[in-house]
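cache lookup: miss for this entity combination. No prior model stored, computing from scratch. Input as submitted by user K.M.:
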Amino acid sequence: MSLEIVFVMVGTTHTGNLGAAARAMKTMGFTNLRLVDTCPHLSAEALARSSGANDVLKDAQTYETLSDAIADCRMVVGTSARARQLAVPLLACREIADEIGALSKTLPAGEKVAMVFGQERSGLSNESLDLCTRLLRIPCNPDFSSLNLGSAVQVVSYELSQALVSVPLGAPQPMPGKWKSSADGTAQEPEVATDPDELPATSEVMGHFFDHLDRVMINTGFMNPDNPRLLRRRVRRYFETNRPSGNEVAIFRGILAATEKPKNR
Ligand code: SAH
């Protein structure tokens, strides 16, 4: 499996759940765990609940913010038991797993995709969801839809493991033009992108782009800095849903820079 799946826990309050998450990940072959503002992950309870996935817990990296934790990721999937207003598209777990399976065929080895899990009681905040390119829901009883955190990690990691071992040809197309079709219309193996700037931009690059866009929207008077929330979220959602490549972001930033320093032509 060339793509690296990163599991990010945000604000976890029960240390046992971190152990359960590590166990769930390892049973499906995943080991990259990142923690943002969680309870201690090396407690006796966490280690006991990991049932031998101690290495996953011990190797876990901690971050101050979710932005830091996902800076190097090219796709960021938030998980939620319920639909959210003004969020990126909400898809069922299997659909997202298929999309990631297809993406894995076009990304060079080692490129990262993040799966982000929220706090036990409240889930992911709107600010966290703003950093996601997709929202994933595990389809379940609509009247009782909140899984235990460790169980949610188990279902997501199972679906991903299945999607990453066998990617059906003709699966959802993650990047336009990357699937070749033969003369008879049957899908063929996609090409792995070789130029990193042609891949979906990383979260770090997108963060700088959004900061720049914000500045221009405020300085041109287009956005009221005292009441920016919905506009900012809509703009973000648009670009995160169709995350541009690094080269495309550079063009947008060039346009923004030109509005800041127009040249007389
Ligand atoms: N009320 C919260 C539930 C939190 S459960 C909410 O609406 O999201 C803790 C975490 O487990 C969630 O943040 C999410 O990461 C995951 N989770 C629980 N149930 C889920 C489901 N049905 N689909 C996707 N993720 C789920």
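stored under new cache key. The first strand starts at residue 4 and ends at 10.
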